Amino acid sequence: MSRTLVMSVSALIAIAACAGPGATPASPAATAAVSQAPSIAVATAPVTVAPPTVATPVSFTSPLYHYSVTLPARWSVGPALLPWDGASAPGHDDASVDRFDSPATVSAWGFAGPATVDLDRFVAENIAWTVRDHGDTCPARTPETNEPIQIGGEAGILLSWNCGILINQALLIREGTGFVFVMRDPNVPAATDPDDRAILESLLDSVIFAD
Predict the structure, then answer these.
(1) Of the residues 9, 174, 180, 195, which has the maximum number of CB atoms within 10 A of its CB?
(2) CA-CA distances (angstroms) from residue 27 to 5, 17, 183?
(3) pLDDT, tens digit, for every residue of 107-117?
(4) Which residues contact 117 (CB under 8 A, 6 or more apart)?
């Protein structure tokens, strides 16, 4: 701003301050001089908006049982600490299972071991072990459903139990190893549930077996 313009603006302000209610308004030229005075720009910092956090699926590779699986986002995993004995139906909190827990009530687990029988016999053995090891909480003697299912792109069997809660078991024999994947949902008092079935199928479809 030039010194002359500053003095002109200051003079106009002083005149306006001294003028009483009846004072004559400033001339158009004086008003124009004030309106044409350069403005002072105030710098502002740019606002940065963080991108939304994207929940990513959880990948897990079993140290003991040599398979990989992809779980939904925000699930937690706990690898098995001991090998499966090959003659029992371990639960979700057994040390011999790889455990997968959702943020809600659904949980799943997997285990495996050497198998010298075919799939039909392996399924029959697992039914007997389930009845023996969980008869106190699962009074049914046989599963409500016994049907084919794909596990890692290979043919397996799905057993659905109503134990007062949903228990689903997916079984497979592959190259002399028996694999079992189990889902549990305490909030479903039935053998089957479409939402749980979708989660289980997604989990089973993601399984990759080590060569």
Answers:
(1) 180
(2) 16, 15, 87
(3) 999 999 999 99
(4) 125, 173, 178
Taking CA atoms, 52 is separated from 4, 49, 55, 56, in Å, by 54, 9, 10, 12
Query: In 3D, which of 132, 191, 182, 141 has the Cα closest to residue 162?
Result: 191
Instruction: Name 60's bridge partners.
Output: 69
CA of 199: how far to CAs of 56, 67, 73, 125, in Å? 16, 18, 12, 26
CATH class of 58-209: alpha beta
* C-alpha distances out from residue 118 to 50, 93, 151, Å: 55, 28, 16
User: Regarding beta strands 154-162 and 145-151, do their DSSP bridges make them parallel or antiparallel, or are they unpaired?
Assistant: antiparallel
Domain spans of the chain? 3-35, 58-209
For residue 120, the 8-state DSSP code is H
Distance CA 169, CA 200 (A): 10
Q: What are phi and psi of 198, to 5 degrees?
A: -65, -40
How far, in Å, are 1, 65, 76, 98, 209 from residue 172 at the CA level?
85, 13, 24, 16, 11
Chain segment 128-175, per-residue pLDDT in tens = 999 999 999 888 789 999 999 999 999 999 999 999 999 999 999 999
